[in-house]
Structure formats: structure tokens, C-alpha cells
Amino acid sequence: MRKIHLATATLVAAALSAGAAMAQMPRITTGAELVSACTIALDANSSADDRIARASCNQFLAGLAAGVYASVEKGAPTVARRLGANKDEDVCFRLPDTLSYETFAKQVTDFAPEHPELYDRPAFEMGARALAANYPCPE
To answer: Is 76 helix (H, G, I), strand (E, B) or coil?
Structure first.
């Protein structure tokens, strides 16, 4: 089984150590919520008041990446199943050896405008489809 990459583990640890902010942190459930939180997180001009949105984006993406890194062998493809409006679609991706939080957040926010149908679907689907667009499995 693949060990969680150190950078991913650091992101998870940082998100978990947020303490009181974590208690107030809204749970990201939809693609729209993920895109909104990550847009704020990537904004160099965001204020200290936006720290909860930044932490929410960080926590969600770190959790998704950590789950994948921990569940597959290094370099193995990951297939996300039961996606789409009818839960009948799959996507396949291979995570790179390293994936920074900022890179993943940017990939999500760059991918989202071309896929407005994903805004009302689960945030996991937005993240998985962004990964598949950037790190597709070989045919």
C-alpha cells in the first residue's frame, strides 16, 4: 500500500491543527462550495477573515489526495465510480508523485468554469474530474 506523501500528510496535519477554526469550518459538500472555497484560498488578496474558506479548501483537497495516495500502489490508476447525474459514470486518473495543495486548488478552479453541471453535484466529483482532466490514465 502506498504511503501518504509527506506534503499531503503535512497539509492534513495543518488542517487538523486549526482547532477552533475547524469547529466553525463549514463542510464542503457541493462542487460550487469547493470552487468558492478554493477561489478564495488562491486569492493573494484574501483577508484574514477568509481563513476558514482557505482551511476548508485545504482540508477537502488534502483529504481527497490522502485517501487516494493511501489506497493505491504508487503509479497505479484510481477509478472514481458512480459519478454523473445518474451515478453511471467513471473517471480514471493517476496522481503524480507529488501534488501541492495550491496546484490541486488551481486545477479545480481552472476546470470548473467549463463544467457548470458539476456545481450542484458532490464536491468529490468536481475534484475527481479535475484530477482526471490533469492526470488521465493511459488508454
So the answer is: coil
Domain boundaries, the chain: 6-134
- Residue 101 amino acid letter: Y
- In angstroms, the CA 105 to CA 60 distance is 10
Name the residue with cell 503509479.
Answer: 75
3-state secondary structure at position 43: coil
pLDDT digits 0-9 by tens, 38-77: 999 999 888 877 888 889 999 999 999 988 888 888 778 9
Structural element, H or E, at residue 82? strand 78-83
pTM: 0.79
Place of cell 483537497: 61
Straight-line distance from the first to the last Cα atom of the chain, in angstroms, rounded to the nearest whole number: 24
What lies within 8 Å, CB to CB, of 5 at 6+ separation is 65, 69, 97, 98, 99
What are the beta bridge partners of residue 122?
Answer: 30
Spatial contact of 105 and 57, defined as CB atoms under 8 Å apart: yes
